[in-house]
Structure formats: C-alpha cells, structure tokens
Amino acid sequence: DTNKHKRFFESLSGAGKAIAVLTSGGDAQGMNAAVRAVVRMGIYVGAKVYFIREGYQGMVDGGEDNIEEASWESVSSMLQMGGTVIGSARCKEFRTHEGRLKAAHNLVQRGITNLCVIGGDGSLTGANLFREEWSGLLEELVQQGSVDEDAVQKYSALHIVGMVGSIDNDFCGTDMTIGTDSALHRIIEVVDAIMTTAQSHQRTFVLEVMGRHCGYLALVSALACGADWVLIPEMPPEDGWEEKMCQKLSANRAGMKRLNIIIVAEGAVDCNNTPITSDNVKDLVVRCLGFDTRVTILGHVQRGGTPSAFDRILASRMGVEAVLALLETTANTPACVVSLCGNQAVRLPLMECVQMTQEVQKAMDEKKFEEAVKLRGRSFENNLRTYKLLAHRKLESELPHTDFNVAVLNVGAPAAGMNAAVRSAVRVGISEGHKMFAVNDGFEGFYKGQIKEIKWADVGGWTGQGGSLLGTKRTLPAKHVEKIAEQMRANNINALLVIGGFEALECLLQLYEARSVYEEFCIPMCMLPATISNNVPGTDLSIGADTALNAIVETCDRIKQSASGTKRRVFIIETMGGYCGYLASVGGLAAGADAAYIYEEPFDIRDLQSNVEHLTEKMKGAIQRGLVLRNENSNENYTTDFIYQLYSEEGKGVFDCRKNVLGHMQQGGAPSPFDRNFGTKISAKAMQWLSKKLKETFRQGRVFANTEDSCCLLGMRRRALVFQPVVQLKDETDFVHRIPKEQWWLKLRPLMKILAKYKTSYDVSDSGQLEHVVRNVRPKESDPSGAM
C-alpha cells in the first residue's frame, strides 16, 4: 500500500492557529504569488491568515489598516502583478527594542504566533532576532500591564518561516530567489532590443545591471546573450584587464561582428577594490579603440513588470511549503527558510543561510574571491565556469589537437533554446580541440550528406534566436541506416550530439540497435532533451519548455484581462503537449487556472460536472473570471469544443464562455533566459562528457564504443544533471503515448486545485525536511544546479 509511506497533510491542522504574512525590504516580482499561496493554503488548513501591510513598519504601527484578516477573494487576480500588493518598507523602528516591543504587542492582541516573512537576508535576520527575544518581550508586556499572564502561556513561542524575495539571487542555500528569473527576463528583453540598434550602427554598448554585492544577474545575462565581456564583484579582472578587453573587442569586430556588448554589475571592482563604473568602461573603449560606444543603465526596470512563469511557480510552491513548515514547527525547531535546490523544495535553517551569505561578503572584503564564489553555491560556480569556457576563444596555437570529429544535429519539432545549445556545443568542442560538424535538417539531412564543418564565429549571436537554425526534421534513422553509416564513414564522425525531443530518444535507440551491424555507430553518442512538451523520460525539464510556459502564461493573462469590466466569464484554453500534460498543468498553476484537463489524470462526465458546479459557486461570489486549460490530447471525446459547449450550457445565467486554441505560438518566440542558460549549460557538460568518452574509447588508432553507457541522455533529475544510458530508459517510457511512465510534476497538480479552492489530498511526504546548508568544497560530477 503506497499510502502507508505518504504523509498526507490532513493530519496537519491549522485550526486555532493564526498566520501573518509580510513582504519586507526591496520588492521582487513573484512576491504576490507567494502571498496568495500562503493566504490560500493557510485558509485551506483552517488557520486564520492576516496581511501585515508595509512590512515591519505595519507590524510596529499596528491598527486595522496595517494588520488585517485576509479572505480567499482578497488575493484573487494578484498572481500576475509585479511588486508586492501589500506594500514593503524599510523600517528603522523595528531595529530598536521599543519597536519590536510594539510589534509583539500588536501580534499578541490578534493571537498571531506564526510569521511568514518574504524578503532578503536583512528582513530574515530581523525576524530571527524577534523570535529569539519573543518570550522576553512578552514578559515586559505583562509587567507593563499591556497583556495578561494567560497570553504569555498561550502564545509562548513565535514560529518563523522565511522565503527569499530578491532579484539579486544573493542568498546562500537557495538556487533561485523569488524575482531573479523575472529580472533576467527584463534584462534580456533590453539586451535583445539593444542588439538590433547596435548591429545597425556598429556600436559598442555598455550595460549596467543591478547587483551591488552579487554578480549573478550580470553573469547569467552575459551567458544568455553571449556578451563580449562581463565585470562582476566576485571575479575582479587581473591587472592589465583593460588591454585584454580591448584586444578581444577588436578581434570580434575583425571577425565580422558588428557590435560588442559589455555587461557591468553595479558593484563591479578591480583587484584593488577600486569600483569599475559603466562610464569608466565606455571611456576606456573610446580612448583605446575609438569605437562608437553608448551606456545604458537599466536601474529599476529590472524590479518591475509581471513575474515570469518560473517565478510564479517557484513562489506558489514555496508559499504552500511555508505554511506546511509553520504547521510542523515545534518550540525548539530553528527558524527556517523554504527554498529550491534543483527541482526540489527544501527547508534550511535560516541563520545558517544568513551566516553563509555574510561570509561571502567577508571573503570578498578580504579579497578571497575564489572562496566567495564557492560560498555562493554550485549554481553560481557553474555559471562562472561555463562563462569562462565559452567567452574566451583560445588562439589556434593554444588549443589541444585531438583529430576527433564531432557532429551536432537537431531532431523533432523546433524548441526555443536549441540554438543556444548548438552554439555552446560548437564552442566547447573547438576549445577541447575537436573539429565540429553541423548537420542540417536532422537525420534526413544526415543521409543526404548535408554535413559541413562549423567554426567558432559561425555560431555568434545564436543564443537569442528562437526555433532551430540548423533545421530540424522528425525523420527517424532506421530506414536510412546504411546511408547514414556511409556518411559517418565519409566524414569520419567520431561522436554524435543529438538535440531534440522524444524523436531524438527514438533515434538514439535505433542507432544503438544498429551498432551490431554497423561499426560506424560504435561511437560515443549523447542526447539533450529539447521539446516544449517536456515529455522525455530521464529528465525533469527540457530545453524549450520554459519559453512555452511563458507564452501560455502571458496569453492567459491577456485573455483574463480581456474580460475585466464585462460580466462574469470563463475561458477554455487548449494547450499543446501531445499526450503530456506538463504545459497544461504547470501553465495552469502559473496562470491561476481553476482546472486543467490532462491525459495522465483520467476524467469523466462527473468530474466535468463538479468543475462546472464549483465554478458556478465561485462566480456567484466576488470572483469575475474563470480559466480552464485542456491539453490537446487529454481525451478524444471530451474535446475542447465539447467542454466549451458543456460549460456554456451549464453556466447559463451565471457566466458566459469563450474558447481559445493557443496553437503554434507556444513553439515560437525568442528563448527565455532560463532556456538559453539551461541549453548552454547542459550542452557544455555534454561536450565535456563526449571528450572524456572519446579519450577512453580510443584504441589502436580508432574510436570504438559499444557499451550501454556510451549512448546516453543528459537530463536533470531532482537536484543533479545525470547521464543515463538510453537503453535503460526504455522501461520508463510509454512509447504509444510518447510520455515517461512517471512524471514529477503530477505532484504539483494538487497545489493548483488547493489554490483554486478544491478539497483534495496533498501528499506532503515530498515536502522538505529540515536540512543543513552544504558547504560547496569541491563540486562532484553532479554539480550543475537545476534552476540555472
């Protein structure tokens, strides 16, 4: 009985508890999604939930306006708003003992002993101090006669759970903080726009991004747009960097590149701790090279705008996790932070994270920069390593020379981020000393001989391009094995990198089978999952899925807004994904859908009936709009039209209906920062693996690899990137419906239902247990972080 091991949270009741939620410090996109999740999950488990407005200031000032009880409806249509609706302020008073005494009094009056704090390290440190002083503060209030003895007994302990909302991603212990992904979206939108004008005028642009003490935004945006140079506080350039930078800029111009992009974090310094400003860099370029150079300072644009799909899902997951953590705390559990490690929710002791975050700053002040990078965590270190690998082209004389030829191709439907992966593979391959070959139009182009060498400069500017520049086809190799083997022989191909969706997996399986007949296929082969449907076994995420989710979420926002001011309306929206319900389910969670119909969770007329009734009930209240998603192949009889007609009929007099098929807009568009980064990172890792395999399997003057582990898929599993032999993935796959037999995201579906006011059981056995912050001493093989 599987339920024996599952811990359902029905056992965790919030009855009689009061939870307050506040946002403090600088705002970040996605804070509202977190507030919404805390409020709804809190109400769901039977607790009273309060908003504290204006951060700690509201807690100190008290009063009905500042601390008010939240209702289910009070957080509706909050999900798509940037910033924080309940306000945030920096509060000097809370730093004083008197201020905290006032705050304690205001909380005790309402019986609030559970705090959910969304903010940066300062806000969280303040919360922890407040928790430690709590019993002393209550004693003081009794002496003043402000509260009675009973209250001290009843409210003896204050429980605190933190969520980190900060666009800088500067908090140790968490891969991604709420708001970081959205800030990257803003930066990349600007960089993409600037590139077109720079191209026209052959200009150099110096972009200054936020990050006073942390270079994450600068580093990742440099990776995501292929910038020529990046300056961050954690990696001050060595003496003489000015000359090196100018050499690189002019070399790029000589190589037919019409523009240069330099990204500067606002806290960038040189190795003597002297600040490097964007104006310094501009003057330098003009003085040394005479290039037409402009400066753009992005400033608060980065904090604004709607949250990205990633931030909404992250914040919703963390908000629910925070309520569970509050329900499970006892008087002696330390204050914790809920965060994300890879794809996994974790809980970490708040003060361990804060101390480590402060250690980073200390290491930087003491000029121990390598240590600072290590303390930042595996995600940061990995980004830095990949950037160094791709940014600086070695001279021919410096390159190792291997005599190996590696071919790269795309298979299946196009997915945003494929080009970033190809660029990364080509450049890493060349750095490793191989000759790189590009195959056009997948395996169809392969057997027709559309194979040519591809050089470093050929892939310049590819990261930001959507679709597949190499061309891609769904053709499988089985029918043309002989011709493909012939081409492998003719071009002397020693290794293969295949980037694509479910077809790519089938291709690799067919080539693996063909090894017994054709020795040409006895070479190292690797596949990278790239498909918007995210339906490839062996990986939690695929390149392209994040871009598609953002397209869905943006469209749902617009569609919902189209009904504002009209009478009550429900939208039925059809998403792509084949038989895989990932886009419908996770898109539904990010867009705040009321239901998402998918193939993996069979539904019948009774379910449709209860969904309609549920919506009718909600629509009679204060809710104006409903959103229902349906995966294209969720059921052959309950079509989108059927569901639309059913809702229209049953909702008569309460709401009207509209339907929308999103179609191919989900496949197009420029790749999101996440997909550019994910594609770049896994592709670099795959090339290094291929190089290692080539060396291992090179015997008597030729490459010979026929073991299972020389034909792998590189996927992200929970917290690590893993190479898995494709043969071993066969048992995990439903080939008829082209989906994995087990899919991690199905456990997010109850979240969507809870946040849409359905009673459901939610398995919390997967929710985070309290762990400790891992010191990143020497990264193991499985280092790359899931969330960029």
TrEMBL record:
Gene3D superfamilies: 3.40.50.450, Phosphofructokinase domain (3.40.50.460). NCBIfam families: 6PF1K_euk. Pathway: Carbohydrate degradation; glycolysis; D-glyceraldehyde 3-phosphate and glycerone phosphate from D-glucose: step 3/4. GO terms for biological process: canonical glycolysis; fructose 1,6-bisphosphate metabolic process; fructose 6-phosphate metabolic process. This is ATP-dependent 6-phosphofructokinase. Substrate binds at S166, I167, D168, R203, M210, G211, R212, E266, R294, H300, V301, Q302, R303. The active site is at D168 (proton acceptor). The keyword Metal-binding applies. Its EC number is 2.7.1.11. Its main location: cytoplasm. HAMAP family: Phosphofructokinase_I_E. Residues 405-788 are annotated as: C-terminal regulatory PFK domain 2. Catalyzes the phosphorylation of D-fructose 6-phosphate to fructose 1,6-bisphosphate by ATP, the first committing step of glycolysis. It catalyses: beta-D-fructose 6-phosphate + ATP = beta-D-fructose 1,6-bisphosphate + ADP + H(+). Beta-D-fructose 2,6-bisphosphate binds at residues 474, 531-535, 569, 576-578, 632, 658, 664-667, 738. Allosterically activated by ADP, AMP, or fructose 2,6-bisphosphate, and allosterically inhibited by ATP or citrate. GO terms for molecular function: 6-phosphofructokinase activity; AMP binding; ATP binding; fructose-6-phosphate binding; identical protein binding; metal ion binding; monosaccharide binding. It is an enzyme of class 2 (transferase). InterPro entries: 6-Pfructokinase_euk, ATP_PFK, PFK_vert-type, Phosphofructokinase_CS, Phosphofructokinase_dom, PKF_sf. Mg(2+) binds at D121. It comes from the Eukaryota.
